[in-house]
Amino acid sequence: MTRWIAACRLDQIEPEDMVRFDHDGRTFVIIRAPEGTVHCTDGLCTHEKVHLADGMVTDHEIECPKHSATFDYRTGEALRAPACVNLRTYPTRIAGDMVEIEIG
């Protein structure tokens, strides 16, 4: 069953920044794009399971802090080795002042 979960307030995320969100034994990263849209991916790098919230966001890419693998956070696509497996992405919406993600 899919449901929308309130993850954080929008004002907690600066443009080109991210926050970690943990829910029900899972971990995610929520990113605010330069144009103000909000995106959500799995929180762990697909290469060595390091949390991406400790990395960097530039343009539309998130960089893993351990080996500098990069992903397009809009699609989850792995863009630079050593990661070769894409991240899972989740529908995201802004409801009032809250960021919500849809998880199953």
TrEMBL record:
Q: Does the keyword Translocase apply?
A: no
Residue ranges crossing the lipid bilayer per the database entry: none
Q: Which Pfam families match?
A: Rieske
Task: Return the InterPro entries for the record.
Answer: MocE_2FeS, Rieske_2Fe-2S, Rieske_2Fe-2S_sf
Presence of keyword Metal-binding: yes
What positions does the domain Rieske occupy? 5-101
Q: Which UniProt keywords apply?
A: 2Fe-2S, Iron, Iron-sulfur, Metal-binding
Q: Which domain of life is it from?
A: Bacteria
What are the names of the required cofactors?
[2Fe-2S] cluster
GO terms, molecular function: 2 iron, 2 sulfur cluster binding; metal ion binding
Provide the family line. Answer: Belongs to the bacterial ring-hydroxylating dioxygenase ferredoxin component family.
Query: This chain belongs to which protein, by name?
Result: Rieske 2Fe-2S domain-containing protein
Q: Which organism is it from?
A: Thetidibacter halocola
